[in-house]
Design goal:
The structure is a single chain. This protein has one domain: 3-Layer(aba) Sandwich (Rossmann fold). The chain is 47% helix and 6% strand. It has four helices and two strands. A two-stranded antiparallel ribbon has the order 1-2. β1 and β2 form a beta hairpin. Keywords: Kinase, Transferase. InterPro entries: ADK_active_lid_dom_sf (IPR036193), P-loop_NTPase (IPR027417). This is KAD8 kinase. Belongs to the adenylate kinase family.
């Protein structure tokens, strides 16, 4: 929630900032930053609530799904995803 709710955009340049991790370099830029309405804390909490309400059903449906550790080198992430696509997941029949 913190990571998403503190995102800001400069409407003049389109540059993205984060109030904690990547603050605007000058007070002038900081003054004109805008927050996307979807990034408001209450909207993020609603999305998270929906996610947790539905995650069990999704996990059951996609029981053979793979998890991607995206906190690594982009090339390694790509290689892992590519290897999973080459041998696709079986689909459940309705």
């Amino acid at each position: 929630v913190e990571r998403l709710s503190q995102r800001r955009v400069d409407p003049v340049t389109g540059e993205r900032y984060h109030t904690t991790f990547r603050p605007a370099p000058t007070p002038e830029i900081q003054a004109r930053l805008r927050q996307n309405p979807r990034d408001k804390e209450e909207n993020i909490e609603m999305c998270m609530e929906s996610y947790y309400r539905n995650i069990k059903e999704l996990e059951d449906f996609y029981e053979d799904a793979f998890y991607v550790n995206a906190d690594q080198d982009p090339f390694a992430v790509f290689e892992f995803i590519e290897s999973c696509i080459i041998k696709p997941l079986p689909c459940k029949k309705f």
